[in-house]
Each structure stands twice: as structure tokens, then as C-alpha cells.
Amino acid sequence: MRPTKIQLDKKAKTLNVVWTDGNEQITSWKVLRERCPCATCRDEREKALDAPMSSLDIFTLKPMTSDDLNHIELVGNYAARLIWGDGHKSGIYGWQLLREFQDIEE
After folding, report:
1. What residues have CB less than 8 Å from 22, skipping those under 6 apart?
2. pLDDT digits (tens, 9 = 90+) for 83-104
3. In what order do the strands lie in the sheet with 24-28?
4. Of the candidates 19, 28, 24, the residue with the CA atom closest to the CA atom of residue 69
5. Closest CA to 103 of 42, 26, 22, 8
6. Could you tell me the pTM of the whole model?
7. In angstroms, rounded to a whole number, what is the distance separating the alpha carbons of residues 102 and 38?
8. Which pLDDT tens digit goes with each residue over 68-85?
9. Mean pLDDT, rounded, for 63-71
10. In the chain, what percentage of residues exceed pLDDT 70?
11. In angstroms, rounded to a whole number, what is the distance separating the alpha carbons of residues 101 and 17?
């Protein structure tokens, strides 16, 4: 499955994708940033899940510095690199991963 159209909606803060099967997907930038597949972001999520937490610890988790999506670059025929407002750009979102975000609610 591949996208036939990928578009940023800066007003709505969504990534809009039309797939070869005709499915139209709208994914919020928040969901995309929170689920960034790069090694650094995965490690941060794993550390947060593995650490014992008190009710106060939740406030000490490192927040993302920007959820503004500035640009998309295609990576071959299999993925897209998302470039965020804070310069973060190491996450490569394969088509299968992007498609999985379809059913995620904020």
C-alpha cells in the first residue's frame, strides 16, 4: 500500500494521506510526533514506561519541544521523513506505520 497524495494541513495541524486503495486518512501532528519512530524518541518512550513513577513523576517527563510540522521529504518509495519545527528530522515513517496511525484517536 502506497500513498497517492500526501498533504500538510497547517491550519488543522494534520497530515492528510490518500492511499492507493482510495482510503483518505487524516492524522494529527500530535499523534505523529508522539509516535516518532526514531531511536531517540523510542528510547525516551521506553524509559518513561520502564521507570517506576509516583503521581508527581509524570510531570518530569521530557516534553517534545515542537509539534509544528514544517516539511515532508519522501524517502525512496517506502517512507516519509517528517521535519519538525524544532529541527527534529530523524524519524522515518514507513508507509505501513503511517497507515497504522489511521485508527488512533488523540
Report:
1. none
2. 999 999 999 999 999 999 987 7
3. 3-9, 14-19, 24-28
4. 28
5. 26
6. 0.80
7. 19
8. 899 999 999 999 999 999
9. 73
10. 82
11. 11
Distance of CA 101 to the CA centre of its chain: 8
The residue type found at 21 is: D
> Which ranges of the chain does DSSP label H, i.e. alpha helix?
29-34, 39-50, 95-100
- Maximal CA-CA distance, the chain: 46
What's the topology of domain 3-103? NE0471 N-terminal domain-like (3.30.2020)
Q: Which three cell numbers stand for residue 76?
A: 525512496
Q: C-alpha grid cell for residue 42?
A: 523510542
Residue 17 corresponds to which amino acid?
V
Report the candidate in 86, 92, 102, 72 with the shortest Cα–Cα distance to residue 5: 72
Whether the Cβ atoms of residue 19 and residue 26 lie closer than 8 Å to each other = no
Q: Report the DSSP beta bridge partners of residue 80.
A: 74, 93
CA distance 98 to 13: 16
